[in-house]
Write a structure and sequence with these properties.
single chain, 163 residues, 8 helices, mainly alpha
Length: 163
Amino acid sequence: MPGIPKDEVLIMYDRIMQIISEVIGRMQEGDKLTVLQFKELENRGFTVAEISTALSWIAERIEQSMLEKTNHATRSKHAHRVLNENERLMFSAEAWGTLIHFREIGLLQTDHVELIIERASMMNIGCMDNSTLTMLIVSLLFQDEDSKHSLHRILLKGDEEIH
């Protein structure tokens, strides 16, 4: 993003992904999302723009029926990708855990996981950490052809409404 230092952009993407993960997890546990929960996110230091962007992304996916509503009991039935020896070297334990978590909550589909593994292999990154993984996930999720979002306009201003 022009004018924003690369480190700040990585932090911003990571924070948006944290919000998305948390909100989807709560929704799948059957929680009703309340204003108090969003105030709690603000109290934890998330900006209104980050929260709005995350909620907008989730709302768009729900509208397109791209997020699966799964309960805790059925989440574990997702097949987990077993990495071969070379693939294991490409991911830190934390990054692989994050990837599995995002797959478990339905944020990523099986083909997303495969694309991330493929991209990591082609990029010859070495051992991928969470910030690199976040960038790969964001590039997949926010560059979706059907999405109104893009990497160039990922943050809402904070005063926009979600309909």
